[in-house]
Amino acid sequence: MKAIWTGAIGFGLVNIPIKLYSAVEASELDLDMLDKKDHANIRFKRVNERTGKEVTWENIVRGYNLNDKYVILTDADFVQAAPEKNKIIEIAEFIKEGDVDSIYYEMPYYAEPEKNGAKAYALLRDALKKSGKAGLGSFVLRTKESLCLIKAESDVLVVNRIRFAEEIRQPKDLKIPSSTSKPAEMKMAMHLIDQLTGNFDISKYKDTYSDKLMKIIRAKSKGKLKAVPTMKIVHSKATDLMAQLKASLGTPRKKAS
Questions:
Q1: How many beta carbons lie within 10 A of that of residue 47, not counting itself?
Q2: 151 forms bridges with which residues in the sheet?
Q3: 15 close to 6: Cβ distance less than 8 angstroms
Q4: Is this prediction's pTM over 0.70?
Q5: pLDDT tens figures, 72-95
Q6: Angstrom distance (rounded) from CA 88 to CA 107
Q7: For residue 16, which phi and psi values (nearest 5 degrees)?
Q8: Fold topology of 5-33+73-167
Q9: Which residue has the higher pLDDT, 109 or 185?
Q10: Domain-wise residue ranges, the chain
Q11: Closest listed residue to residue 88, CA positions, set 146, 139, 134, 142
Protein backbone atom coordinates (compact mmCIF):
# COMPACT_ATOMS: atom_id res chain seq x y z
CA MET A 1 0.00 0.00 0.00
CA LYS A 2 1.10 3.56 -0.67
CA ALA A 3 0.71 6.19 2.04
CA ILE A 4 -1.58 9.05 1.06
CA TRP A 5 -0.78 11.33 4.02
CA THR A 6 2.12 11.64 6.44
CA GLY A 7 1.93 13.58 9.67
CA ALA A 8 0.91 13.05 13.30
CA ILE A 9 -2.05 12.60 15.60
CA GLY A 10 -2.10 15.19 18.37
CA PHE A 11 -3.25 13.62 21.65
CA GLY A 12 -2.99 16.31 24.32
CA LEU A 13 0.71 17.21 24.40
CA VAL A 14 1.62 13.91 22.75
CA ASN A 15 2.26 13.78 19.00
CA ILE A 16 2.05 10.35 17.38
CA PRO A 17 3.82 10.26 13.99
CA ILE A 18 1.73 8.27 11.51
CA LYS A 19 1.09 7.47 7.87
CA LEU A 20 -2.43 7.12 6.46
CA TYR A 21 -3.40 4.40 4.01
CA SER A 22 -6.74 3.93 2.26
CA ALA A 23 -8.76 1.28 4.11
CA VAL A 24 -11.01 0.46 1.17
CA GLU A 25 -10.72 -0.75 -2.41
CA ALA A 26 -13.27 -0.99 -5.20
CA SER A 27 -15.01 -4.32 -5.83
CA GLU A 28 -16.56 -3.49 -9.21
CA LEU A 29 -15.01 -4.72 -12.44
CA ASP A 30 -12.50 -2.44 -14.15
CA LEU A 31 -14.30 -1.62 -17.41
CA ASP A 32 -12.67 0.40 -20.20
CA MET A 33 -14.48 2.97 -22.32
CA LEU A 34 -14.31 2.04 -26.02
CA ASP A 35 -15.35 3.55 -29.33
CA LYS A 36 -18.52 1.78 -30.47
CA LYS A 37 -17.24 1.63 -34.07
CA ASP A 38 -13.89 -0.12 -33.69
CA HIS A 39 -13.58 -0.79 -29.92
CA ALA A 40 -10.52 1.44 -29.64
CA ASN A 41 -9.78 2.78 -26.15
CA ILE A 42 -11.11 6.25 -25.33
CA ARG A 43 -8.40 8.50 -23.92
CA PHE A 44 -9.02 11.69 -22.01
CA LYS A 45 -6.65 14.56 -22.60
CA ARG A 46 -6.02 17.80 -20.73
CA VAL A 47 -6.48 20.36 -23.48
CA ASN A 48 -5.93 24.13 -23.54
CA GLU A 49 -9.34 25.51 -24.54
CA ARG A 50 -7.72 28.38 -26.47
CA THR A 51 -5.09 26.51 -28.47
CA GLY A 52 -6.64 23.04 -28.50
CA LYS A 53 -3.24 21.60 -27.62
CA GLU A 54 -2.66 18.97 -24.92
CA VAL A 55 -1.06 20.23 -21.68
CA THR A 56 1.28 18.06 -19.60
CA TRP A 57 0.80 17.72 -15.84
CA GLU A 58 3.94 19.72 -15.04
CA ASN A 59 2.47 22.72 -16.88
CA ILE A 60 -0.88 22.65 -15.09
CA VAL A 61 -1.51 25.00 -12.16
CA ARG A 62 -4.59 25.56 -10.01
CA GLY A 63 -6.45 28.83 -9.81
CA TYR A 64 -9.55 30.44 -8.32
CA ASN A 65 -11.78 32.68 -10.42
CA LEU A 66 -12.12 35.88 -8.41
CA ASN A 67 -13.95 38.77 -10.08
CA ASP A 68 -13.45 37.22 -13.54
CA LYS A 69 -9.70 36.94 -13.01
CA TYR A 70 -7.78 33.82 -11.99
CA VAL A 71 -5.67 33.90 -8.84
CA ILE A 72 -3.03 31.18 -9.23
CA LEU A 73 -2.34 29.02 -6.18
CA THR A 74 0.84 27.07 -5.44
CA ASP A 75 1.42 24.14 -3.09
CA ALA A 76 2.87 26.61 -0.58
CA ASP A 77 -0.41 28.59 -0.59
CA PHE A 78 -2.39 25.50 0.40
CA VAL A 79 0.01 24.79 3.25
CA GLN A 80 0.05 28.44 4.37
CA ALA A 81 -3.74 28.46 4.82
CA ALA A 82 -3.42 26.03 7.74
CA PRO A 83 0.11 24.65 8.10
CA GLU A 84 -0.66 22.73 11.29
CA LYS A 85 -3.64 20.88 9.74
CA ASN A 86 -1.50 19.72 6.84
CA LYS A 87 0.68 17.79 9.26
CA ILE A 88 -1.27 17.21 12.48
CA ILE A 89 -4.65 15.63 13.21
CA GLU A 90 -5.32 17.40 16.48
CA ILE A 91 -7.92 15.63 18.62
CA ALA A 92 -10.26 18.39 19.78
CA GLU A 93 -12.53 16.21 21.92
CA PHE A 94 -13.61 12.65 22.58
CA ILE A 95 -17.16 11.61 21.76
CA LYS A 96 -19.38 8.56 21.44
CA GLU A 97 -19.10 7.20 17.93
CA GLY A 98 -22.86 6.62 17.83
CA ASP A 99 -23.45 10.36 18.18
CA VAL A 100 -22.29 10.89 14.59
CA ASP A 101 -25.00 10.18 12.01
CA SER A 102 -23.99 7.91 9.13
CA ILE A 103 -24.72 10.68 6.59
CA TYR A 104 -21.52 12.43 7.69
CA TYR A 105 -19.17 9.51 7.02
CA GLU A 106 -17.00 9.87 3.92
CA MET A 107 -13.85 7.70 3.79
CA PRO A 108 -11.86 5.45 6.19
CA TYR A 109 -8.06 5.26 6.44
CA TYR A 110 -5.69 3.03 8.38
CA ALA A 111 -3.18 4.86 10.54
CA GLU A 112 0.25 3.23 10.77
CA PRO A 113 2.68 4.51 13.44
CA GLU A 114 6.27 5.44 12.76
CA LYS A 115 8.75 3.47 14.86
CA ASN A 116 9.27 6.30 17.35
CA GLY A 117 5.51 6.61 17.88
CA ALA A 118 4.63 2.95 18.48
CA LYS A 119 4.25 3.26 22.26
CA ALA A 120 2.03 6.37 22.14
CA TYR A 121 0.04 4.81 19.30
CA ALA A 122 -0.70 1.71 21.38
CA LEU A 123 -1.66 3.86 24.37
CA LEU A 124 -4.21 5.90 22.39
CA ARG A 125 -5.59 2.77 20.75
CA ASP A 126 -6.03 0.95 24.05
CA ALA A 127 -7.48 4.01 25.78
CA LEU A 128 -10.09 4.41 23.02
CA LYS A 129 -11.02 0.75 23.35
CA LYS A 130 -11.39 0.97 27.13
CA SER A 131 -13.36 4.23 27.07
CA GLY A 132 -15.58 3.26 24.13
CA LYS A 133 -14.94 6.72 22.71
CA ALA A 134 -13.63 8.11 19.42
CA GLY A 135 -11.37 11.11 18.92
CA LEU A 136 -12.80 14.00 16.89
CA GLY A 137 -10.33 16.15 14.99
CA SER A 138 -9.63 17.74 11.63
CA PHE A 139 -6.89 17.73 9.03
CA VAL A 140 -6.15 18.79 5.45
CA LEU A 141 -5.78 16.11 2.81
CA ARG A 142 -4.47 17.49 -0.48
CA THR A 143 -6.47 20.75 -0.79
CA LYS A 144 -9.51 20.02 1.41
CA GLU A 145 -10.06 20.17 5.14
CA SER A 146 -12.14 17.41 6.70
CA LEU A 147 -13.35 16.50 10.12
CA CYS A 148 -12.39 13.00 11.19
CA LEU A 149 -13.14 10.39 13.82
CA ILE A 150 -10.28 8.31 15.18
CA LYS A 151 -11.32 4.97 16.61
CA ALA A 152 -9.72 1.67 17.52
CA GLU A 153 -10.47 -1.36 15.36
CA SER A 154 -8.71 -4.44 16.70
CA ASP A 155 -5.01 -3.44 16.80
CA VAL A 156 -5.35 -0.55 14.33
CA LEU A 157 -6.35 3.08 14.63
CA VAL A 158 -8.85 3.94 11.90
CA VAL A 159 -9.25 7.55 10.81
CA ASN A 160 -12.72 8.07 9.34
CA ARG A 161 -13.00 11.27 7.31
CA ILE A 162 -16.40 12.88 7.93
CA ARG A 163 -18.20 15.81 6.37
CA PHE A 164 -18.92 19.20 7.89
CA ALA A 165 -22.56 20.06 8.61
CA GLU A 166 -22.42 22.73 5.87
CA GLU A 167 -21.71 19.99 3.29
CA ILE A 168 -24.98 18.17 3.92
CA ARG A 169 -27.90 19.23 1.77
CA GLN A 170 -31.20 19.86 3.51
CA PRO A 171 -34.22 17.80 2.36
CA LYS A 172 -36.54 20.81 2.39
CA ASP A 173 -36.92 20.78 -1.41
CA LEU A 174 -38.09 17.16 -1.51
CA LYS A 175 -41.78 16.49 -1.98
CA ILE A 176 -42.46 14.27 1.02
CA PRO A 177 -46.22 13.63 1.49
CA SER A 178 -47.58 13.99 4.99
CA SER A 179 -49.14 10.72 6.13
CA THR A 180 -49.97 9.12 9.46
CA SER A 181 -49.47 5.40 9.95
CA LYS A 182 -52.46 3.45 11.18
CA PRO A 183 -52.00 1.56 14.49
CA ALA A 184 -52.77 -1.83 12.90
CA GLU A 185 -50.26 -1.20 10.10
CA MET A 186 -47.64 -0.04 12.59
CA LYS A 187 -48.15 -3.19 14.70
CA MET A 188 -47.74 -5.38 11.61
CA ALA A 189 -44.65 -3.44 10.50
CA MET A 190 -43.07 -3.92 13.93
CA HIS A 191 -43.75 -7.67 13.69
CA LEU A 192 -41.99 -7.71 10.31
CA ILE A 193 -38.99 -5.81 11.72
CA ASP A 194 -38.77 -8.28 14.63
CA GLN A 195 -38.94 -11.21 12.20
CA LEU A 196 -36.08 -9.83 10.11
CA THR A 197 -33.92 -8.71 13.04
CA GLY A 198 -30.57 -10.45 13.43
CA ASN A 199 -26.99 -9.96 14.59
CA PHE A 200 -25.00 -7.91 12.10
CA ASP A 201 -22.26 -9.86 10.34
CA ILE A 202 -20.82 -8.01 7.34
CA SER A 203 -19.03 -11.17 6.13
CA LYS A 204 -22.39 -12.70 5.19
CA TYR A 205 -22.83 -10.10 2.43
CA LYS A 206 -20.85 -10.41 -0.80
CA ASP A 207 -20.63 -8.41 -4.02
CA THR A 208 -22.38 -11.05 -6.13
CA TYR A 209 -23.17 -8.63 -8.96
CA SER A 210 -19.53 -8.43 -10.11
CA ASP A 211 -19.28 -12.23 -10.13
CA LYS A 212 -22.45 -12.56 -12.20
CA LEU A 213 -21.28 -9.86 -14.59
CA MET A 214 -17.96 -11.69 -14.99
CA LYS A 215 -19.85 -14.87 -15.94
CA ILE A 216 -21.67 -12.91 -18.65
CA ILE A 217 -18.34 -11.51 -19.92
CA ARG A 218 -16.84 -15.00 -20.15
CA ALA A 219 -19.95 -16.37 -21.87
CA LYS A 220 -19.97 -13.54 -24.42
CA SER A 221 -16.27 -14.11 -25.12
CA LYS A 222 -17.22 -17.65 -26.18
CA GLY A 223 -20.19 -16.46 -28.22
CA LYS A 224 -22.73 -17.81 -25.76
CA LEU A 225 -25.58 -15.31 -25.49
CA LYS A 226 -28.42 -15.68 -23.06
CA ALA A 227 -31.80 -14.02 -23.14
CA VAL A 228 -32.09 -11.04 -20.80
CA PRO A 229 -34.75 -11.73 -18.14
CA THR A 230 -37.63 -9.29 -18.14
CA MET A 231 -38.15 -7.48 -14.86
CA LYS A 232 -41.38 -5.67 -14.15
CA ILE A 233 -41.93 -3.60 -11.03
CA VAL A 234 -45.54 -3.48 -9.94
CA HIS A 235 -46.52 -0.57 -7.73
CA SER A 236 -49.29 -1.64 -5.41
CA LYS A 237 -52.00 0.71 -4.27
CA ALA A 238 -51.77 2.22 -0.79
CA THR A 239 -54.94 0.32 0.20
CA ASP A 240 -52.98 -2.96 -0.23
CA LEU A 241 -50.44 -2.01 2.46
CA MET A 242 -51.94 -4.23 5.17
CA ALA A 243 -52.15 -7.18 2.79
CA GLN A 244 -48.53 -6.64 1.75
CA LEU A 245 -47.40 -6.65 5.38
CA LYS A 246 -49.29 -9.87 6.13
CA ALA A 247 -47.83 -11.52 3.04
CA SER A 248 -44.35 -10.34 4.03
CA LEU A 249 -44.67 -11.99 7.42
CA GLY A 250 -45.45 -15.29 5.71
CA THR A 251 -42.52 -15.06 3.30
CA PRO A 252 -39.35 -17.07 4.18
CA ARG A 253 -36.39 -14.94 5.15
CA LYS A 254 -34.04 -14.26 2.21
CA LYS A 255 -30.45 -15.43 2.40
CA ALA A 256 -27.88 -12.67 2.69
CA SER A 257 -26.03 -11.87 -0.54
A1: 11
A2: 158
A3: no
A4: yes
A5: 998 888 888 877 888 999 999 999
A6: 18
A7: -110, 105
A8: Ku70; Chain: A; Domain 2 (2.40.290)
A9: 109
A10: 5-33+73-167, 183-194+201-249
A11: 139
